[in-house]
Each structure stands twice: as C-alpha cells, then as structure tokens.
Amino acid sequence: MGCPCSKTEDKKEEETPKVYSWDRKDRPDPKDYKIEDLNGETIGRVPGKVDGQQFIIKNCQNCNIYIFDHSATITIDKCQDCNIFLGPIKGSIFLRNCTNCKAVIACQQFRTRDCKSIDVYLHCSSQPIIETSTKIRFGCFQYHYPELADQFAKSNLSPYCNTWDTIHDFSPMPDEQNWSQLPESAKVSDYLPLPTTEQFQSMKISTSADDSVVPLTLGGKKHKGSQSSLVAFFKDPSSDQRLRKFINEMRNEGSCSLVRTTEINMDAGMVTRLFGEDNRYISAATNGPVVGLEFAGANTAQKCQEVAQPLIGDSIVYLPQSPEEGTQALDGWKNLVETQMAM
Known about the structure:
This protein is α/β, with parallel strands linked by helices.
C-alpha cells in the first residue's frame, strides 16, 4: 500500500513556483555597478555598495569619481579629464582610450591601452603593464579611511606587496619613454581632490603618508652612492603596529628612504639561507608572511638599528649589523621574492 499523503505532497511540489536566478530579488542590478555618460559630476559609491562585484566606468568627462569599496575587476573606457579613486580591486583594472585623467588605484593587476596623460598613484601586487600609451606617470598609493584596511584583506591584497614602479611597456618608443615617475614631492592631495558632496560627507579620509594603509615607497629611484639594507619583520600579534611605527619614524628621521616593501612566505630552509641558523627566525616564520623593507641612504644599517631598537619590543625583527651584511641580505631577499613571483 502506498503512503496516503504521497499524492498530496506531489501536488504541493507541482504547485510550488520555480524561482530562477534572473527572478531573484536579491540579484545584483547591473546599473548599480556602472557609471557612464556623465559630464561635470561628482559621483561614486560608499563602503558596502560594491562589495566585491565587477564595476564599469565609461564615457565620462570632467568628473570626480570615487569608489570607496572593494571590487572584483574594474574597466574604465573613454574617460577624459576625470579624477578617479578606486578602492582595492581583487583582480584587474583596465584603462582604455582615456586621456588627461588622475587616479588613485589599488589592484592585483594594472593595464592601460591607448591612453594618454594619465597620472596614477598605484598599489599593484604584480608588474603594471602599459600598451600603446604615452605620458603615463606613476607614484605610490597613499590613502586612508577606516574601512580601507579591511577592504584590502577582502581583496587578498597585501599593503606590503607593492610593485608600482616596475612598469612593463608592451609598445616602447625608440627615442622616448612612455612612462615616468611622479616627482618625489608630489602628494595625492595635490592631484586628486577630496570629495565634498553630501554623498561622501561621512567619509573620514586622509592622504597623509603617516596614515596611509600602503607605506610610502620611493620605488626604483635611488640616490647615487647610497647604502642599501634589508630590515625584515616576522609576524606576531604586535608586529604590524610596530612595523608601521618604525616606517614612520624612519621617514621622520630623514636620512634614509624606504625604496620598496615586499612580503613573502618563508620555510626553514629559506630562513637559514638568508639569516643563518637562528631558531628565533625559523620559529617566527611559521606565524605567517615575513615583511621585507628595503632602505637606501647614508649609514642605513646603523640608522635602522638606532630607530628600531626602542620600538620592536619582543617582536622578531632582522636588523643588519653592518652595511655589508644589510646589502648581502637584501640581495638574497630579492632573489627569494623574484622566485616566488615567478611561480
């Protein structure tokens, strides 16, 4: 005998309407993730409004555009005379056919095609690429608002993995370089205005190097005859706070410049090859990625020692004992970074 309620259940199942993905009320509306065909407007998105979705900016002129959120990918097409801020992008940012724009961008991959006269303060975790583009100028990303660090984490971007200055040009000119670095004295606030419209009144923004989520780095520029040294911070609950304070103190001290920051995972073999058989370093490397700081300047190793000692507490930090040791450690560190980036 069959179950007396089976026919009733079958009837209920037949009467239940099917819900398809395009009918769902919670399905993202594409128009919420697009800015296009605007002229002379200040517009954008506040934290929580993009939330990791893909975004499109297209056909805008004389606009101030601010995306204060993290996204999957962003494309910017045919924009002219625009100021643009883009929060962390988990994937790629692609600028095409844009002219005379200024931007602050954090991303995994940066590409331009057929662009002219673009100034960009960049954080990029892979080698930035330009193609059939001219007069592109790069500087180091400098920005802060309370939600930004968490947005970096959600985008799997490390503030310390920043290769903003290692540009690859797919279409170089024989007698002219298509890209250059912005002046060392240039500040984000001089190039990109802060938003003043009602939409962004609650945003607490700073463009100070002391506040920036991404440390200010000099990039490939380095003064002739300067000494180069490596400082490495191993991860612990207090290391990031102490690392930030050390970077700011070194900048305020003034005799050395932070050239580049990188972050890599290290096993016991890597630690031993670079720092010797020191059990403190080997043990600390198991806590997570190690942050390497490349400094250049006069008496770099000595200055790093002097500034770091009062700050590092019980954190595990590699500090060079001499200029020769600092340079040798830096060369070894660069080889490890290049190997991991090539994998």
